[in-house]
Structures are given as structure tokens and as C-alpha cells.
Design goal:
Chain lengths: 492, 247
């Protein structure tokens, strides 16, 4: 006993001397020095007393530098406040410290905590607190039942290190939790947590409102939905958008980020995930076991997890409950903005965006990359066969499938005296087009036949086809004929 | 039936029985017919009381009878002060159980028992027993979850129930004679061990009527009190046993 007392005293003295060497304007250091001096003065039987620094999410108090236990005084005030749940949507939150989640409490394993719960005089309801970090009846709830305008106090010793949820446990418990009465208390292990660059506090909760998701106004609690476990909202840090836009978490590339993740529930368990990051480490369930290389970690209602990762490359990383409809449809979205230097080896960014072809992503060409030649008919039958296709594609719409034409509009080319009278004239009509009045089979037509962009071969084929159908005179038209006619300007 | 006695401001609550909320095997509790103030006691009424009984004034009340917030919303030792116009007809709050009890006794009345109060509070506008009326519960729930207004409304503006009692739901919490006999401890979930009547966390499933979940809050509230406590949204009203002649 005596030697350990001496050792401690020497430690305190060391800290005191160290602190003396630093600036007195630095209150934190000064405070530490005073604490250490007081401890030396009082001997080791009395722990130095510290007022706990409590923070609002997403901030967490600084890591504990102390190497010795202290008496930590925690003062937590309960208020009932109307705040934003989503854009245009308000809700009456019951809070530990003015917002949801409650203030973050950070103590050290072995600390003795003097806990004060103050229930604001304006509160409508009595409240208490159950800290999962407490070993004792109700986690403190049995000693903190506090009427509005009152304050209760109890002491506990932090026996187990870990990240713990606290919440209200006053009847009706479910409603107190559903209204936002929860937060996190971290009991740092004696040896401390490994140093990281950024630490944040993220806590999920499910909310039950009378109106549907997005229904505006001050929304009352919906007991039926709560009992059915069908939340209207699932959010991080008390409201839709609490961790997005300007309120996004931030880090620089190369920094290590630690998230203290809690889940207040009351009902849902969370599939906590950061899109685009792999957790290098997860302290599963907020305890001492470390899992590595985790994509998604399960955070039970009334439970917690510590996740750590290095921000390797810049960009926006989205925090979600990967039970994904909650994220995109009920609000469980947050964002971590990482700024800094790119590392193209780790992540290249988009290299290209181009047309996707199912056969392969690149443009493909045959080894001999010339377009195939149009088939050339070797015989009259071949010409008729090829000409049929040209007719179907170019002529049939007007002259009709049987060449009958449309009376008064498009002249017939079946048994057509006009067609059969002059092959060269027919070629010219196709090659140059035709405008003006003509007489076909005794009927006058006055419409326009457009010039068709067909090759000589195609014109020869289509006319041969037409001349060999529907009672026409059955001649073959050759490409040489077409070439000759095309060279001659239209006579009409 | 619901009858209001205009001279005393009391309404008659015809006796009957009801099953309190706690405990899975709770038996019905009998409530004798009694009379209950139609309204909670107002600031104006309490002003008159402290003028008549100096020992209940802010400055003179004994510490064991009331904590330091006793009548803290009153600006003067004898009355409400500048806010009088806004709240003289609103329920008096920040009064201890001792003070409430004394007030009723000085009027020849008494505080209602918790059973009497709860029995009277089961009534909606139209029914003496709205046990199965979910709309009625929802109204309660919405009040419980709304923060206190800066100025409480006048007692006559609040919800009037079947018996003609105003503000049983939706105005203020109220002291009862046996406020601390509710079977609830600070740690309201420990009904597995000592006292099975204790309810709360498990009470939702152990309760006789799960739907009336919100009524637990009244029991919870009363259990958080001590007799010298004063709370900003806790008032009271008085009751009277039926005169022998009319039984």
C-alpha cells in the first residue's frame, strides 16, 4: 500500500512539474496541475475531483490524459423541448442535456462518479437515468427518479471499460426512450484508447409520429406505431439531416477516424455501415474485443460499437443503417466529408464514361475493317429478289403492296400503261423524282414523287422487280441503263 | 348522474369499481360515490387562502412543509403579482402536498384518493368509462408529450368530462391524498422481484389494459414526489365524501 502511494505521489509530482513548464493560460493543463497538486496534498485516500466535460453530438470530450482515477462529477439536465425532426416537421423531444442524443460522457475505468440528474422545472414529467456503465440497481434508475424541478444524486464506480448507452427508465419506459432520452457514456480503459485524429459521436434512434414521413407540423408520438415497431423516422443524432450538408462530419485524407456509435432504439437494431469505407477496427458491441476489416456492424438497441478507419482518399462517405430503406426512406443518413490529396492507387476516380456494349466495353472492329459491299445480282431472278427488298423499304407505302396505288393520290404501278410504255422514263422518275400531272390508266394524278437516294444497282433491281410483277411487261432493267438515264437530266 | 352543485363547485361522481392499471392480476377496486371539485384550485383561490392563513404564505411556510420553489411563480408574498391577469383563473401550481391538504381541509373538504381521482378521470365527454376509447387515450398522450405552456389556461377552458369535472386530462398533474402509495419505485422496471404489483417497463405487458399505456405516467409522476415537493405543473383539487343523508 505504502509503496504504491509513494509511486502515485511521484506520478502526481511529475505531472505537476510537467504542467508548470507549460503555459498557465492553458486552462486544461492548469486544471490538471491543480488536480495533481490537490491529490498530493490530500494523499491518495481522496481522489482528485473533476467536473466532467460533457459534449453535444457529434462532438466528444477530449481523450483522458489522466493516468490515475478521479472523482468525476457529472451534471446532466433533463429538458423537454420542441425541435426539428425533419424539414418542416417538429417533435417534442425529451432530452438529456437539450438535444438528442444526450450529452456524451467520458470517464476512465476506476473513476468514481458523482452523478447529478437535474429535471428542469419546466418539465412535464418525472425522469430518471439508467446508465449501462453502472453496476447497481437499475443502472442508477433506482436512485434518480426525479420530479420536475428537482435534482437527485448518486455515486458509482466505473468497474468495466467500454462504450455504454444511457437512457431514461421511467414509466412508460418505451415512450421516454422513443422521445429521445438516450446517450452514450464512454469508460476509457485504464491504458486509454489508441490515439486517433478525429473522434465523433453518432447515435441512431427510431421515432414514431402520428403523421406519415414528412407530414409537417408538430407531430405527436404514435403509440400504436411504436408498439408495432413501425417507425416513421429512423435517424442519426436526432433528426433527418443532423449529419449532412454543413453538419457533415469532416476529416482529412490520411487521418484516422473513430466513431462512437450508439443505438437508442427503442425498437430497431442498426446495421451500421459507412459507404466506401471498411472499418479497420470495430470494438464489437462497445466492449473490449476488436474485430478487424468489417463492412457493416450490428448495433443493438441499447447497445453501441466503436468503429475506426483511416480516411485513405478524399470524397463523401455516407453513413447509413444498411437496412437500407431506413436510410433512403426514413432518414438514417449521415455524411463524412474527407478532403485532401487523391491517392489514385487506392482509388482512381472515374477514368472514363462510355457506351456499354454487351459484347465488350470497347469499340470493336473486324480485322478487315471495310464495310461489306452491297450484293450484286448476277441474274434477272437475283435482281427481282433484291429489288423486292428495295420496293418494300422505299415504294410500298405509297404504291401499295400489290402495286395498286391509291386512287387520286398515288398512281398504280400494276398493269400500268405509264410504266410499261417507256422503261427509260420509268428509270428517270425513280432517279430524278417526278413532279406534275400525269395520266396513268386513264386517271390523272398530280402529286410529287420524291427523288430517291438509291444506287444504280438498287434502281435496276427495284424496277426489274416491279416490271416482273402484277401483269407488267417483264423486262429486266440493268445498271448500265440506269447509269445512262441518271446522266441525262430530266426532260420534263 | 352528473350533477353539478353550483354553490360549492362540486360535481358528483357516482361510485362503482374499476381495475387500476398496475399488475397482471389486479382486482377491481371499489370506489364509493363522492364529490369532486369541478375545477382545479386556481391561483386566485389560493391567494385568498394564504391571506386567510398566514402560515401558508411564501415567506412564512415551514421548510418541512414546502421546498424552496413553493409558489415561485408568484411575484409577491401574498399573490401572483403582475401576471395575475393572465393566470388568476389558471390552476395554482408549485404547491406542496401539505399546503394542498391544508387548503382542502380549510374548505371543509379533503384531497381525493388516487383511486377516486383515477376513477373520475376514466370519463370522456360522453361516457363515465372510456376505458376502451382509443381517441380518449390519444388526447392524454398528446398532452403528456407537449411541453408546459408559459401560462396555463384558465380552468374553465379545459376539457369537461362526463361528470362535469374540468381539466382531469390535459391541464396539470394533481396531488392526491395517497399520492405515494402507488406501487411504483424509482426503478420502475423491477417488478420481477419484491412486489409484483410494481409495474412500468414490464407494466406495458403486465397491465390490465395495455392500450391505456399513457395512464402509467400519472402513477409514475405521483411516485416521483415527496410531500414537501412543489412542481411547476402540479396542482390539486379537493373532494368530499358523500353526505350521509344522500347515501
Amino acid at each position: 500500500m505504502k509503496t504504491s502511494t509513494k509511486t502515485k505521489a511521484v506520478q502526481f509530482l511529475g505531472i505537476a512539474i510537467y504542467c508548470l513548464g507549460l503555459l498557465f493560460s492553458c486552462t486544461d493543463v492548469k486544471k490538471e496541475r491543480e488536480i495533481a497538486s490537490a491529490a498530493i496534498a490530500a494523499g491518495s485516500k481522496v481522489l482528485p475531483q473533476i467536473e466532467a466535460e460533457l459534449t453535444n453530438a457529434p462532438n466528444v470530450p477530449r481523450p483522458i490524459a489522466r493516468k490515475y482515477p478521479a472523482k468525476v462529477v457529472v451534471r446532466l439536465e433533463v429538458t423537454e423541448v420542441v425541435q426539428k425532426l425533419a424539414d418542416g416537421v417538429e417533435y417534442t423531444f425529451w432530452t438529456f442535456g437539450g438535444s438528442v442524443p444526450g450529452k456524451f460522457i467520458r470517464i476512465r475505468e476506476g473513476d468514481e462518479v458523482e452523478f447529478h440528474l437535474m429535471n428542469h422545472p419546466d418539465s412535464k414529467n418525472p425522469h430518471n437515468i439508467d446508465l449501462h456503465a453502472v453496476s447497481g440497481p437499475g443502472g442508477g434508475a433506482a436512485s434518480t427518479f426525479t420530479a420536475p424541478g428537482h435534482e437527485t444524486i448518486f455515486d458509482f464506480k466505473a468497474l468495466n471499460p467500454g462504450l455504454y448507452v444511457y437512457h431514461c427508465a421511467t414509466a412508460p419506459v418505451g415512450m421516454h426512450i422513443a422521445n429521445g432520452m438516450y446517450g452514450l457514456i464512454l469508460v476509457e480503459p485504464k491504458e486509454g484508447l489508441p490515439a486517433v485524429d478525429k473522434e465523433y459521436y453518432v447515435m441512431q434512434g427510431d421515432f414514431y409520429t402520428k403523421g406519415d414521413f414528412g407530414a409537417p407540423g408538430l407531430q405527436p408520438f404514435d403509440m400504436t406505431k411504436a408498439l408495432k415497431e413501425e417507425p416513421t423516422y429512423v435517424v442519426f443524432n436526432g433528426s433527418v439531416g443532423a449529419l449532412t450538408g454543413e453538419k457533415a462530419l469532416t476529416a482529412q485524407t490520411g487521418e484516422t477516424v473513430r466513431l462512437f456509435v450508439g443505438n437508442g432504439g427503442p425498437n430497431l437494431i442498426s446495421s451500421f455501415h459507412v459507404i466506401g469505407e471498411i472499418f479497420d477496427k470495430v470494438y464489437q458491441e462497445g466492449g473490449s474485443k476488436v474485430n478487424e476489416n468489417v463492412q457493416t456492424t450490428l448495433v443493438p438497441a441499447g447497445g453501441a460499437a466503436i468503429t475506426e478507419f483511416k480516411a485513405d482518399v478524399p470524397g463523401n462517405y455516407v453513413l447509413v443503417d444498411h437496412s437500407i430503406f431506413r436510410a433512403f426512406n426514413k432518414g438514417a443518413l449521415g455524411m463524412l466529408k474527407v478532403q485532401g490529396k487523391e491517392d489514385k492507387k487506392v482509388y482512381s476516380g472515374q477514368i472514363m464514361d462510355k457506351i456499354y456494349l454487351p459484347e465488350g466495353a470497347t469499340v470493336q472492329e473486324m480485322p478487315d475493317s471495310k464495310a461489306p459491299l452491297a450484293p450484286v445480282a448476277a441474274t434477272k431472278d437475283g435482281r427481282i429478289a433484291l429489288g423486292k427488298a428495295v420496293f418494300t423499304q422505299n415504294c410500298q407505302a405509297c404504291h401499295q403492296a400489290e402495286g395498286q396505288g391509291i386512287k387520286g393520290a398515288f398512281p398504280p404501278i400494276a398493269k400500268s400503261d405509264y410504266l410499261n410504255a417507256d422503261v427509260n422514263r420509268a428509270i428517270g422518275v425513280v432517279a430524278h423524282g417526278l413532279e406534275g400531272q400525269i395520266k396513268v390508266n386513264g386517271e390523272l394524278y398530280n402529286s410529287t414523287m420524291p427523288k430517291l437516294t438509291l444506287t444504280d444497282e438498287q434502281i435496276a433491281n427495284v424496277l426489274t422487280f416491279v416490271y416482273n410483277q402484277w401483269g407488267n411487261k417483264g423486262v429486266e432493267v440493268t445498271t448500265e441503263q440506269v447509269k445512262k438515264v441518271r446522266a441525262t437530266p430530266p426532260s420534263h | 348522474m352528473a350533477q353539478k352543485n353550483p354553490s360549492t363547485g362540486l360535481v358528483m361522481i357516482k361510485g362503482g369499481s374499476f381495475v387500476p392499471l398496475y399488475g397482471p392480476d389486479a382486482k377491481p377496486v371499489k370506489v364509493q360515490s363522492f364529490q369532486l371539485d369541478a375545477y382545479p384550485v386556481t391561483n386566485a383561490q389560493f391567494e385568498a387562502f394564504v391571506q386567510a392563513y398566514p402560515k401558508w404564505r411564501k415567506a412564512t411556510v415551514k421548510k418541512i412543509f414546502a421546498d424552496q420553489n413553493y409558489l415561485k411563480h408568484w411575484a409577491t408574498p401574498l399573490g401572483v403579482g403582475p401576471d395575475a391577469a393572465k393566470i388568476k383563473n389558471s390552476p395554482v401550481t408549485n404547491v406542496s402536498w401539505f399546503a394542498a391538504k391544508a387548503y382542502c381541509e380549510c374548505q371543509g373538504k379533503r384531497l381525493p384518493t388516487s383511486n377516486e381521482w383515477e376513477f373520475a378521470a376514466l370519463a370522456s365527454e360522453t361516457k363515465p368509462d372510456a376505458t376502451n376509447d382509443e381517441k380518449f387515450y390519444q388526447r392524454s398522450l398528446e398532452w403528456y408529450s407537449k411541453p408546459n405552456p408559459k401560462y396555463l389556461p384558465p380552468v374553465k377552458e379545459s376539457f369537461r368530462n362526463y361528470y362535469g369535472a374540468y381539466g382531469m386530462i390535459g391541464l396539470v398533474w394533481e396531488w392526491t391524498q395517497d399520492y405515494n402509495s402507488a406501487l411504483l419505485v424509482g426503478e420502475g422496471r423491477s417488478n420481477a422481484s419484491l412486489d409484483k404489483q410494481e409495474f412500468c417497463g414490464s407494466g406495458a405487458s403486465g397491465a390490465t389494459n395495455v392500450k391505456n399505456y399513457v395512464a402509467f405516467m400519472r402513477y409514475a409522476f405521483r411516485s416521483s414526489l415527496k410531500a414537501n415537493y412543489t412542481v411547476a405543473n402540479l396542482g390539486f383539487r379537493c373532494a368530499s365524501s358523500m353526505p350521509v343523508a344522500s347515501r
